[in-house]
Write a structure and sequence with these properties.
The chain has helices spanning about 45-55, 65-90, 100-120, 135-145, 160-175, 195-210, 230, 235-250, 275-285, 305-320, 335-350, 355, and strands at about 1-5, 15, 25-35, 125-130, 150-155, 185, 220-225, 260-265, 290-295, 325-330. It is of the alpha/beta class. The protein has two domains: about 25-190 and about 335-355, Rossmann fold (3-Layer(aba) Sandwich), CATH 3.40.50; about 195-330, Rossmann fold (3-Layer(aba) Sandwich).
């Protein structure tokens, strides 16, 4: 016996047998991906998170036989305590989550509203974390079950790096491998030189400068670091960071030499991209640059690296070396200019899909 199968929010299948499973109405999905966060700052939550993060071969590419014993037996016996204390110092205790989680939720809420206003109610906007929860796999499963036959995947990394953008893509592809009905997908590329992203950065600097009495002597653009070897092996991250800094300076109308590009979060003994932020701010203070501002263009949301490392370790190093005024320019977070930039990026990558979807 043929029949129509209908359920709320589901499509109609004509000429299907009565026992055919319901099928969700076809829709387009937008999946935003950020780095990740531990579920809590206790030892075991931190150990699970750090183990997943530091076991990623995109992040640490040493042979597993050499790296895993050191990681599991030495590093993860101590580091969860120190990292947990750092997270506790910035934790959103009211909501029981890290600032990165709070901000990502706010970003996605604004993106949902903007997408709905631009394209109507048919698109699904969700977020996942590369490490921790909500996992990429669980969110992909939910989106496919909800009828997403097309998904635009947006890693929230303006500059491409193998240890950020590529590993987020890897995780997304592995999640798709488990789906019986794989959706069509588009991966949003890096947007380090997008005019609206640069504009949002410039506005954030102008806003921060308008709230202080004395203009900083220099603006330090501090990006997350990576081993120099990765650059030599073809990773474009370093060059893209340099271009973002240059475009930001040009948009601000400042002279050459007014914005320095540095790299933070060095790990291990291998040489990383230089100059190191913590060393550079000390050099600035000793050279007479007593007032500086620091911005983090590579981070889409304030997190442990900005709230604890920059405003803690790096600020303290500058002041201890003789610095007088340290201004931190917050990440773009859920600022309206940032959401506008992300929407412009998404519209480009949705081209053709949304027009066909509306027919």
């Amino acid at each position: 016996m043929d029949t129509e199968i209908v359920r709320p929010g589901a499509g109609r299948l004509t000429h299907a047998p009565a026992d055919h499973p319901p099928v969700a109405r076809a829709r387009i999905g937008i999946l935003v991906a950020n780095l990740g966060t531990p579920d809590n700052y206790d030892y075991w939550s931190m150990r699970r998170y750090l183990s997943e993060f530091l076991s990623d071969r995109r992040v640490i590419d040493f042979p597993a036989w050499k790296w895993q014993p050191l990681l599991q037996l030495v590093i993860l016996s101590k580091r969860p305590f120190t990292s947990g204390a750092n997270y506790k110092s910035i934790w959103n205790h009211e909501k029981g989550e890290s600032p990165l989680m709070t901000i990502t939720k706010a970003q996605v809420a604004k993106l949902r509203t903007a997408v709905s206003l631009r394209f109507g109610e048919g698109l699904m906007v969700e977020f996942c974390m590369r490490y921790g929860n909500p996992s990429t796999e669980s969110v992909v499963r939910r989106m496919v079950a909800a009828g997403c036959e097309k998904i635009v995947f947006l890693p929230l990394y303006p500059q491409y790096a193998g240890a950020t953008s590529a590993t987020a893509n890897d995780k997304f592809f592995r999640a798709l491998m488990k789906e019986k009905r794989q959706p069509a997908v588009r991966i949003v590329p890096e947007y380090f030189d997008h005019s609206l992203y640069i504009e949002a950065l410039a506005q954030s600097v102008e806003r921060a400068y308008s709230g202080i009495d004395h203009r900083p002597d220099i603006l330090v653009a501090s990006y997350h670091g990576m081993p120099k070897r990765y650059l030599m092996e073809g990773d474009p991250y370093h060059c893209q960071c340099q271009k973002t800094s240059r475009l930001l300076r040009e948009r601000l109308g400042w002279a050459e030499g007014s914005v320095d590009t540095t790299f933070q979060s060095v790990f291990g003994r291998e040489e990383w991209l230089r100059p190191y932020t913590v060393e550079h701010v000390v050099e600035l203070a000793r050279a007479g640059k007593k007032r500086i501002a620091v911005i983090s263009p590579a981070f889409s949301a304030d997190c442990i690296e900005t709230l604890e490392e920059i405003q803690g370790e790096i600020r303290e190093a500058f002041i201890h070396a003789g610095g007088k005024s340290f201004t931190y320019v917050p990440c773009l977070n859920d600022d309206d200019a940032h959401i506008a930039a992300l929407m412009a990026v998404l519209e480009t990558n949705l081209a053709g899909w949304t027009e066909a979807h509306g027919k």
